[in-house]
Each structure stands twice: as structure tokens, then as C-alpha cells.
Amino acid sequence: QLQLVESGGGLVQPGGSLRLSCAASGFTLNYYGIGWFRQVPGKEREGVSCISSSGGATSYTNSVKGRFTISRDNAKNTVYLQMNSLKPEDTAIYFCAPVIAGQNMCLMSPRMPYDWGQGTQVTVSS
Fold it and tell me: What is the Cα 76 distance to its own chain's centre?
């Protein structure tokens, strides 16, 4: 069973930075494209970014382009989301999940079924 664990969230002031981590448990991440998603209470979960299995392709939702960077370290079985210039509207619970992807493409669409983890809370506030 694919299981990913998110970490790295916290409270940060506007303009600050955080790096989220998505670690795989019990399987090798190398063969999977991975996406980051976020959800605010009362709203649908939205795709933020994704990365192909090779790391050669990435994609971002418009609101985070130029501020967020997704990367992966297959040796550490981990995907990261570097978030810079954070804004209050980035406040959400962030999740990672396997996505529809190949070596050189990815979609911000989770491979279903997937048992979502607890996510990690990111709060941007002064």
C-alpha cells in the first residue's frame, strides 16, 4: 500500500519560507510522479505542484509559480516543496500523493484510490 508522510509545516510570517517534505514508507518512490495538494476547511482540495518520476518535468498552479519549487531526492525516497514569499492565502493543510505521471510529464491529478495522510499545516500570518 502506498503511503506518504508529510512534514515541515508551521507558522511563518508573510514573505517567509518553509520547506515541506513528503517521505515514502514501505515502497520506492522512484517510479512515481508525486504531487502536492492543499486544502482549506470548507473548500475542495486543490493541486499545487507535481513532479515526474524522473524529476525531469514539473508543473505548478498559477498562484504559486515563481514562489514554490518542487524537487525530489530518490536516494532519500523524498519529495520536497520549497515555498518562498509565502502569502496569507497559502495557509492550508498540505498533502502529497502519487499522481498520474510518466518519466517526463505529470498531472496534478492523484492516482486513485489513495488513502490520504494527515497532511502538514502551513499557516502564514503576522
Answer: 16
**Which uninterrupted H or E stretch holds 105?**
strand 105-110
> β-pairing, 18-25 with 105-110?
unpaired
**From CA 57, how far away is CA 41, in angstroms rounded?**
30
Question: What count of Cα atoms within 13 Å lies in the side-chain half-sphere of residue 16?
Answer: 16
Q: Is the pLDDT of residue 2 over 90?
A: no
d(CA 15, CA 103): 33
Q: Answer yes or no: are the C-beta atoms of 107 and 96 closer than 8 Å.
A: no
**Which has the higher per-residue pLDDT, 1 or 37?**
37
Pairwise CA distance, residues 36 & 48, whole Å:
5
Contact 1, 114 (CB under 8 A): no
